[in-house]
Write a structure and sequence with these properties.
The chain is mainly alpha-helical and 56 residues long. The chain has one domain (2-55). Helix content is 66%, strand content 0%. It is built from four helices and no strands. The longest helix has 13 residues, at 15-27. The radius of gyration is 13 Å and the shape is flat.
Length: 56
Amino acid sequence: LTKVKREIGEISDNPQNFLLEALHPVGYSGALANSLMASESAIDRLDGSIIRKFVD
């Protein structure tokens, strides 16, 4: 999870990626309008057991 948090931070710091995230909901509707990246607060709620359940 530490690696995921670091990668999301790096992506968030990139203006091009920030713009893509901001424009995505404008170009799509419904489920496709969801963010391409998880928020830091969503990542904070994850733990190993949740990830294992998802994979299984």
